[in-house]
Amino acid sequence: MNSKPRHVLESASRRALLERALLAAGLLLPLAALAADADNGAAAAVAKVLNKRAPLTSGLKFTTPAIAENGNTVPVSVEVEGAFSAEHYVKAIHLFAEGNPAPEVISFRFTPRSGRAKVATRIRLAKTQRVVALAEWSDGRVLEAINEVKVTIGGCGG
């Protein structure tokens, strides 16, 4: 004999039935599918910035902690080495978090008058993941740096 009251069992059965109906209708995605979409979204977002260009892996100083105790406020800094001129400058720095539900974290824009491309901010990370920094030069080159950040407490509702 079951020790739970009948209305609790009926409620759980109705909930399971509703979840199955929503899944069948395509209105509710399993969590694994959401995670896969986030990973695919990051790859697509990075590919969009790269626009079929091969990124260079030197000239970009990207700093993140190896371990973030709290994913709500993870400090990051990005600095592009080199001097700016009217014709030669960094147009943008982009940050992507591959495991976040919204992988495009932030983009910073620069002009020749910026003088240098250096930014520091805090970002939110949902879980342990790779964080990608891209820097776009005015001449079409793209610099890339990738850091792995281990998150002990997730920052996107985790």
Give a structural overview.
It is a single chain. The chain is α+β, with helices and mostly antiparallel strands and 158 residues long. The protein has a single domain (11-17, 27-151), classed as Immunoglobulin-like. 25% of the residues lie in helices and 33% in strands. It contains two helices and eight strands; from the N terminus they run H-H-E-E-E-E-E-E-E-E. Strands 2-8-7-4-5 form a five-stranded mixed β-sheet, with helices on one face. Strands 1-3-6 form a three-stranded antiparallel β-sheet, with no helix packed on it. The two termini are 37 Å apart.
The CATH class assignment is Mainly Beta
% residues in beta strands: 25-35%
Taken from the alpha-carbon principal axes, the silhouette is elongated
Work out the helix count. Answer: 2
Largest sheet, described in full?
5 strands, mixed
Would you tell me the overall average pLDDT?
83
* Computed Rg: 21 Å
CATH superfamily: SoxY domain
- Pattern of helices and strands: HHEEEEEEEE
Tell me the number of structural domains.
Answer: 1
Question: What CATH architecture would you give?
Answer: Sandwich
Numbering strands along the chain, what is their spatial order in the largest sheet? 2-8-7-4-5
Structural class: alpha+beta
Write the CATH fold name.
Immunoglobulin-like
* DSSP helix fraction: 25-40%
